[in-house]
Design a protein that fits this description.
- The chain is mostly helical.
- It is about 60% helix and about 0% strand.
- Helix 1 crosses helix 2, helix 4 packs across helix 6 and helix 5 packs across helix 6.
């Protein structure tokens, strides 16, 4: 991977010790990722690692799967907020907090507590409040991530305007 002193803990530099746990594998993958990124660029490393990070077809997609790096940047609580905000932004034709709150509250009634969306509320009013507060917190704490969500909304609005313009010309 690099120079002779990169991994002094290895007795035989040609073959590293066998990993004992998932954390060991995670560390080795991180080392490999950064080595590839250093040599070929971060984008190439992300593309290469992305080939193996596709979700299984039978697995329920989560909102954050579109941007897998988000999970690493946020705490578990912030990630749950991100998921809800991403669901809000994915609504068609426009984001509607009341409708999303109603849908998530209804869905939360059928899910076990650890798999519920947002705060886990099963009523519309607390879920609506959670969505509103999550949006405010994301704007303040992580404005760049919030801009990522907003850019998706702006692109969708531009597409809708273009479609309406084409339709009106007919």
């Amino acid at each position: 991977m690099g120079g002779d002193d990169d991994f002094p803990m290895w007795e035989n530099k040609d073959s590293p010790p066998e990993p004992d746990s998932l954390e060991d594998y995670k560390g080795r993958l991180g080392e490999l990722f950064w080595e590839i990124a250093r040599r070929f660029g971060r984008v190439q490393a992300q593309r290469l690692f992305g080939l193996w990070s596709k979700p299984d077809p039978g697995e329920r997609p989560r909102a954050g799967d579109k941007y897998p790096f988000i999970r690493e940047l946020l705490s578990p609580r912030e990630y749950k907020e991100w998921e809800v905000l991403e669901l809000l932004e994915a609504m068609r034709p426009w984001p509607n907090k009341d409708v999303l709150a109603q849908q998530l509250a209804k869905k939360n009634k059928t899910l076990p507590r650890h798999k519920r969306y947002g705060s886990g509320a099963t009523d519309m009013a607390p879920m609506r409040k959670y969505i509103h507060r999550a949006e405010i917190k994301m704007k303040k704490k992580s404005p760049n991530l919030y801009l990522l969500l907003e850019s998706n909304r702006r692109q969708r609005i531009e597409k809708l305007k273009a479609a309406a313009k084409r339709k009106s010309k007919r």
